[in-house]
Fold this protein.
Amino acid sequence: RRIKGEVVLKDVTFGYVPGKTVLKRINVTAKPGQKIAFVGSTGAGKTTITNLINRFYEIEEGEIYIDGINIRRIKKDSLRSNIAMVLQDTHLFSGTVRENIRYGRLDATDEEVVAAAKIACAHSFIERLPEGYDTVLEGDGANLSQGERQLLNIARAAISKAPILILDEATSSVDTRTEKYIERGMDRLMKNRTTFVIAHRLSTVRNADLIIVLEHGEIIEQGTHEELLDLGGRYYQLYTG
Ligand code: M5T
Ligand code: MG
């Protein structure tokens, strides 16, 4: 049965420790292929929502469904293979560039590795490495720049066939040229996948199908960029300074 990528959160309430509610009655519907952006101040609960979609924690109240199936009834390894992630802190292991891109897709051919690297705009920097795709990365990619590590993570997500993608955008500064590359890679990565993006860049948020504004664990506004600007509320404040 192929997952199409519809994700529904229904009245989700959650806290990491008893007595401290972090998310309150969150309702979100992502149709297959849609791009949903979460924005809001630090500690609002953006990462927590993605933690729950990944089922890193069990929900106390409410339910999450993928294509109509309660995620409590989806096997964890099935969930893993259906959700790709590009997170702020990139996880690379000591091994070759090729192995790091291939990751869970052990069946992937060398051609697929290169194609994924091209989607991520990582191919040209990889080719400049001493041994190209066979260059061995030191632990956690210590011999690469932060931007290059990010591009490898994008390539890894690109080679995965997961229909659901979670992006926790890095706030940290990469140079503007690398940032342009990353943006292009992200756009191509999101194509045909349901994407949840915790967005810091206005450029990423602007073209989302739905922007959800969180504050203290609650959805306070939602809509498209234009709708939310017209509303003149919290989102408007965030993006007009
Ligand atoms: C929301 C607490 C955190 C905050 C609230 C990830 C995590 C969070 N929290 C924990 O107690 N344990 C955890 O493992 O939950 O935090 P968040 O969801 O991380 O917020 P955010 O992603 O919107 O914030 P930021 O800073 O990444 O923009 O009270 O202490
Ligand atoms: Mg976060």
Observations:
- DSSP finds ten helices and twelve strands in the chain.
- The two ends are 46 Å apart (CA to CA).
- Residues 16, 22, 40, 42-48 surround 5-Methyluridine triphosphate (ligand 1) (CB under 6 Å).
